[in-house]
Design goal:
Vanillyl-alcohol Oxidase, Chain A, domain 3; alpha+beta; Uridine Diphospho-n-acetylenolpyruvylglucosamine Reductase, domain 3; Uridine Diphospho-n-acetylenolpyruvylglucosamine Reductase, domain 2; binds flavin-adenine dinucleotide
């Protein structure tokens, strides 16, 4: 244990019962039962002959900086007076009290805690920390105070605690930030204040316990760091996002992440044993136990803070389960159409013994676009990737069973080097954006039962919203849940590109018809809270937030929904109106084709060939 972890756990104050508040009942839409639509899968694009991929050993990909997309302006929809449920929102003191100035009182106080070098008020830093990975229209600055007043880089839980106490005293909002790879405005401030850069210095592995199979890390530790360290000890982490080279364990815990390995070992919520959290009054709370499960009676605070998007407290450390690694064996199968994969997927999830580490798919458009962009792609149409993990003897049995299931449904097993290549590429889904266009996924979950029908919906969505189609990729989260990531290309410089967000709203609406939802809330989808749960549940959640964070300093405007800097509520009526408007406008505009245009203009395939030639003759630099 490092010295910074030896912080005394303070006694948690008895929470006061939340004040009863008058809540107007928001209308709750009845969930429609999904109708199986007869939508033809688009004809597969003619396969282009491509070179066979080189056989590479399966290894962890190199750490890669996630490119920040350019900030582009989008017209914000006209704000309309909407009737919102009367839930008293705690006041954000930040907007009133914090005054910007170089060497402000806030910065001076923070410097006394973390040292001058770990506090920044520079214009450049404040601009850089004003958004996350999502392309953010400049106009968002009109709606929110998204430029933080000051950026702080704490090293320890104790420093975190003191920072929060200063924030309470000064009435400053706090926005925790990991690697900012989320994309729903999660680490985007809405009320200026203090931006907590957790990944800068709180990035250590505290301990890997090889006996009890647990790992304790500081919240800003990247997955890549932990995966590599675990691998050296013959261990594997339970599940991680495909953004793992950059994403932090704290960001994953705060978003309740699902990801690679989750089919076998479960998502964040099932793997976190304990958290050390700095609550809204600066107390340090230990939630859960380090080596045993929190299965008995008692409030499970670790579960409460997991997936809270930093709205209830700042996570300082995380203790999670790890597992014996054994070996990894990826298997790949080719299908004529993506839709056909639905049958084997449903057979696998209902099999009593099969438990692959990871089940994923990529469709023909995904590979076709990679070829157009000069990115190496396997010679397949629609790829089904089933990755096994464990001992050889067990995996032999699993492989035989998966082979039989897939063959029964018309899938063809492909060479193991393709499977290994795709496993190796699991964190580079969006390589084709190297042609110079942005690519944005609509991340939604639906029930596995509706898997094939939802494939049709994705293709229909591309057509209806006239998208510059990227592809339909995704993974199976658990026995009942599939995560679809249909993605599209967009030209960040044009008005047409900006209207692309209509597709995310469209797919979210469709997912709801198939027993699913959009993933995450953040700022951009916070209004979804009202549509995801009944009014009593939503009111209870808002009351909980108000009780735990009475000054609303913890990531205000996120998850439980907030208001613009002018006090206009970003409720479901306003956001629903914006979504309908945007979908209507997008449907009327001409089809977006920036990707194909760019690929042609820059001749990426030729450049790639030139690169390969120069690699072969040793002149590549
Ligand atoms: C290419 C790509 C692939 C992705 N694949 C997946 C995937 O497979 N599964 C998945 O779930 N997501 C995925 N994501 C989304 C994202 O990468 C993950 O959610 C990731 O876990 C976020 O980590 P981060 O460190 O970037 O968090 P950030 O984006 O910095 O923060 C996310 C949220 O957590 C809060 N937060 C961060 N740190 C703390 C803390 N210490 N305490 C309290 N709150 C905190 C922030 O305020 C914000 O609300 C992907 C994104 C990209 C770009």
């Amino acid at each position: 244990m490092t010295s910074e972890e030896k912080v005394k756990v303070k006694k948690v104050k008895e929470p006061k019962p939340p004040k009863e508040k008058k809540v107007k009942e928001p209308k709750v839409k009845p969930v429609k039962t999904p109708k199986e639509k007869k939508v033809k899968e688009p004809k597969p694009v003619k396969e282009k002959k491509v070179k066979e991929p080189k056989v590479k050993p399966v290894k962890a990909p190199k750490e890669k900086k996630v490119k920040e997309p350019k900030v582009k302006p989008v017209k914000t929809p006209k704000e309309k007076k909407t009737k919102e449920p009367k839930v008293k929102e705690p006041k954000v003191k930040a907007e009133k009290k914090v005054k910007l100035s170089s060497g402000s009182k806030l910065a001076v106080e923070l410097s006394a805690v973390v040292g001058k070098d770990n506090v920044s008020e520079s214009e450049m830093d404040r601009m850089l920390y004003s958004h996350d990975l999502a392309p953010l229209p400049k106009e968002a600055g009109l709606a929110f105070k998204n430029v933080p007043d000051v950026i702080v880089r704490p090293s320890t839980l104790e420093e975190l605690s003191q920072i929060v106490k200063i924030a309470v005293k000064e009435g400053a909002a706090i926005t925790p930030r990991g690697a900012s790879t989320w994309g729903l405005g999660g680490s985007m401030p809405t009320a200026a204040g203090i931006l907590l850069d957790i990944s800068a210095k709180m990035d250590k592995i505290v301990e890997i316990d090889e006996v009890n199979l647990t790992a304790k890390v500081q919240a800003g530790c990247t997955w890549k760091k932990l995966i590599d360290e675990c691998e050296k000890k013959g261990l594997i982490v339970p599940s991680y996002p495909s953004s793992f080279p950059a994403a932090t364990v704290g960001g994953w815990a705060s978003t309740g992440g699902i990801g690679i390995g989750g089919y076998k070992y479960g998502p964040a919520k099932q793997n976190i044993l304990s958290l050390e959290v700095v609550t809204a009054d600066g107390s340090i709370v230990k939630a859960g136990y380090d080596s045993i499960a929190d299965n008995m009676s008692g409030y499970s605070l670790a579960q409460l803070f997991t997936g809270a998007e930093g709205t209830l407290g700042v996570i300082g450390t995380i203790t999670l389960r790890v597992h014996p690694l054994g070996k990894i064996r990826p298997l790949a199968y080719d299908f004529k159409t993506l839709r056909e994969m639905g049958a084997p997927i449903n057979d696998i999830v209902r099999h009593p013994s099969l438990k692959p580490l990871h089940i994923a798919w990529s469709d023909y458009m995904h590979f076709e676009n990679q070829r157009l962009a000069g990115v190496h792609a396997p010679d397949v149409k629609n790829l089904f990737l089933v990755t096994l993990q464990g001992d050889d003897a067990f995996m032999d049995l699993e492989e035989k069973t998966v082979d039989e299931i897939v063959a029964k449904h018309g899938g063809v097993k492909v060479d193991s080097h393709i499977a290994e290549h795709e496993w190796e590429e699991r964190c580079y889904e969006f390589r084709s954006r190297n042609v110079g266009t942005g690519s944005i996924p609509a991340e939604v979950v639906v029930t596995n039962e509706n898997w094939s029908a939802f494939v049709d919906e994705c293709y229909e969505g591309f057509k209806k919203m006239k998208m510059d189609k990227g592809g339909v990729i995704g993974m199976i989260s658990d026995r009942s849940t599939a995560m679809f990531m249909p993605y599209y290309f967009m030209d960040g410089e044009s008005l047409l590109g900006m209207t692309g967000f209509a597709f995310n709203f469209y797919m979210g609406d469709r997912a709801a018809e198939y027993g699913g939802r959009s993933l995450g809330l953040g700022v951009f989808f916070a209004s979804n809270l009202d549509t995801l749960h009944c009014k009593e549940t939503v009111a209870y959640m808002r009351a909980l937030k108000a009780a735990m964070d009475p000054n609303d300093i913890m990531n205000p405007g996120h998850l439980v929904c907030g208001s613009t800097r002018f006090g206009i509520k970003m409720g479901k009526e306003l956001m629903g109106f914006a979504s309908t408007m945007l979908q209507g406008i997008k449907g009327l505009l001409p089809e977006d084709s920036s990707f194909k245009g760019n690929a042609k203009r820059f001749h990426f395939d030729e450049m790639e060939e030139e690169k390969e030639e120069s690699r072969e003759d040793g002149t590549y630099q």
